[in-house]
Amino acid sequence: MWECKSRAHVFVIIALFAGAARASAEPPRLDLVWVDPTDIAAGTFATVAAESRTLLEATGADVTWTSAPRGAVVGPESLVVIAVPTYPTSLNRERHVMGSTRMVADGALAVWVFPDQVAWALGLDMEMRRSWGQRAEAMFGLALARVASHEVIHALGAAGHSKRGLMTSHLDRNALTSRSLRIDQDTVAAIRQSFARGARTADHSWTPSLLRGGPFTAAAELLAMPGPTR
Would the pTM of this model clear 0.85, i.e. be above it? Predict the structure, then answer.
């Protein structure tokens, strides 16, 4: 009888370890939702999603992108990336802010990208977009993806900027359209620590909701460097 109980006990322990190993082996899921309420970045979603997934691979996350229809309700398991225009009275226009992240203790967590300022950095005029052509459109989508990814990384817990790569405080046309743009190792380490906190939760999962109520209250901004025609 004692031997049977001991074997059963061993089997339970093995099962628990196996379950924990499977949970730890699964990459954290990062569900990103693209919202473009004014259609200022219409036609760029596919490029944004593909390039962002490539950039964010370094974090170890399983990244998915969804384009939300107007009026959609987004749950706490997702992080919203919103494309919005700047306005004549906005400081964003004067400072050429391409992206910003907001995290506050009451639960708000979102990323903003400002496509007109991204266009400014590329030396493009949003009012002339219909005449841009395929090459300019491709650059615009690629640059938006990099700005969005920069701000997503801030939202995941990397509060500061780096000296080079994707996470510098300013990006110019060359960086926004180069063949590759890397995330520095210190930033990757900070993100993986954030994911590790999720692995210690009851269900061994990580979602952006874990960041709500966290210590981050800053508005991390990414500024544009002048485009070639400025």
Answer: no
Residue carrying the six token digits 């900027």: 161
d(CA 195, CA 189): 10
Is 168 contained in some domain? yes
CATH of the domain at 123: 3.40.390.10
Range among 12-26, 62-76, 159-173 with highest mean pLDDT value = 159-173
Contacts of 167 (CB under 8 A, 6+ apart): 150, 153, 158, 161, 183, 184, 187
Which alpha helices (H) appear in the chain, and where do they start and end? 2-25, 45-56, 91-95, 115-122, 134-155, 173-177, 185-199
**CA distance linking residue 194 with residue 79, whole number of Å:** 15
Report yes or no on 202 lying in a domain.
yes
To which residue do tokens 């080079």 refer? 164
The predicted-structure confidence for 154-174, as pLDDT tens digits, reads as follows: 888 887 899 989 999 999 999
Tokens of 185: 């190792």
* Closest by Cα among 112, 108, 103, 110 to 83: 112
